[in-house]
C-alpha cells in the first residue's frame, strides 16, 4: 500500500472512532480492552496521535515519552480526540516525503513518513474497533489488503522486537494464513527462547496454523476477536493468546 492510502485510512478510521465513542458515551465499558472505558480509549489514542505527530512535525530523532492527556470527559473529551486526530492527519499530509525522525520497528518501511502514517493507520483502526465494540452493533469493515499489511506489521515488526513475549523453551513453528488473500498472504513464525523470527511464505512444516479471512485474522492477532480456525497443536494458539499482547 502507498502512504497516501494509509493516510486516507487513518483519516476515515479516526472519524469513525470519534463517532462511535460519542454514541457509546465516555463511561461505556470497552469489552475488547478489559478494565477500560471509552474515556480511557480516547485519552490513550489521542495522546498517541499527538506523540506521533510531534516526531514528524519537530523532526525528533530520539525517543520521547507519550504526553499526558487532559483531564476532560464527555463531549469535551470527544472534541479533544477529534482535534488530536486532525492534528496528526494534517501533520502527516503536510510533511515532506524525506522527513527524518525517529521510528521504532525493525521493518519501518521506506521512510519515516511512511512508517508513521502506516503505524497510526493501524493503531487507529484497532482502536476504532474497540470504540465500536463499546457502542455495540456491527463493526465497520477492515479492507483485505490493509488487514494483510497489518498482520505483516505485527508479525515482522512488533514481534521481531526484544519486547515480544511470544517465546518457547524448545524451537516451535507456527503458520499464519489469510485464506482469502492469495498464496502470498502466509507467514512462518519460528519460536525460540528469543524474539520470534517471521518470514513471508508457507515453506516447510509447521506444528500449528492460525487461519481465516484477512480481516478476521487481523483482529484475532491483535487479540480483539477469536482466531477463526486453528489446526495442529492448539497449545501454540493458546500461547499466542496468552503472550502476544502489545504494551
Describe this structure in words.
- It is globular, with a radius of gyration of 18 Å.
- Helices cover 48% and strands 11% of the residues.
- It contains 7 helices and 5 strands, in the order H-H-H-H-H-E-E-E-E-H-E-H.
- A 5-stranded mixed sheet has the order 3-2-1-4-5.
- The two termini are 26 Å apart.
- It has helices at residues 3-24, 38-58, 74-94, 112-135, 144-156, 214-221, 234-243, and strands spanning 172-178, 186-191, 197-200, 208-212, 229-232.
Question: What is the terminal-to-terminal distance?
Answer: 26 Å
Strand order across the largest sheet: 3-2-1-4-5
Binned, the helix content reads: 40-55%
How many helix segments? 7
Q: How would you sum up the major sheet?
A: 5 strands, mixed
Instruction: Determine the mean pLDDT.
Output: 96
Multimerization status? single chain
Order of helices and strands: HHHHHEEEEHEH
* Principal-axis shape: globular
Radius of gyration (CA) equals 18 Å
Based on secondary structure, the structural category is: alpha+beta
Extract low-pLDDT stretches: none
Percent in strands: 5-15%
Number of strands: 5
Amino acid at each position: 500500500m502507498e502512504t497516501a492510502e494509509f493516510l486516507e485510512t487513518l483519516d476515515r478510521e479516526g472519524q469513525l472512532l470519534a463517532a462511535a465513542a460519542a454514541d457509546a458515551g465516555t463511561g461505556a465499558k470497552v469489552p475488547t480492552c478489559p478494565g477500560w472505558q471509552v474515556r480511557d480509549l480516547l485519552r490513550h489514542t489521542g495522546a498517541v496521535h499527538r506523540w506521533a505527530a510531534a516526531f514528524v512535525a519537530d523532526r525528533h530523532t530520539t525517543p520521547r515519552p507519550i504526553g499526558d492527556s487532559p483531564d476532560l470527559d464527555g463531549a469535551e473529551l470527544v472534541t479533544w480526540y477529534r482535534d488530536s486526530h486532525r492534528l496528526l492527519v494534517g501533520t502527516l499530509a503536510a510533511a515532506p516525503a524525506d522527513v527524518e525522525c525517529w521510528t521504532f520497528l525493525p521493518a519501518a518501511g521506506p521512510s519515516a513518513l511512511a512508517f508513521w502514517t502506516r503505524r497510526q493507520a493501524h493503531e487507529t483502526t484497532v482502536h476504532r474497533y474497540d470504540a465500536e465494540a463499546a457502542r455495540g452493533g456491527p463493526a465497520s469493515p477492515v479492507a483485505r489488503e490493509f488487514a494483510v499489511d497489518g498482520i505483516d506489521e505485527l508479525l515482522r515488526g512488533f514481534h521481531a522486537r526484544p519486547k515480544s513475549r511470544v517465546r518457547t523453551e524448545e524451537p516451535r513453528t507456527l503458520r499464519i494464513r489469510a485464506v482469502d488473500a492469495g498464496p502470498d498472504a502466509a507467514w512462518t513464525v519460528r519460536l525460540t527462547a528469543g524474539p520470534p523470527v517471521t518470514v513471508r511464505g508457507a515453506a516447510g512444516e509447521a506444528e500449528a496454523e492460525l487461519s481465516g479471512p484477512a480481516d478476521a485474522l487481523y483482529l484475532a492477532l491483535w487479540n480483539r476477536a477469536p482466531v477463526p480456525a486453528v489446526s495442529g497443536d492448539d497449545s501454540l494458539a493458546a500461547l499466542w493468546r496468552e503472550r502476544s499482547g502489545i504494551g
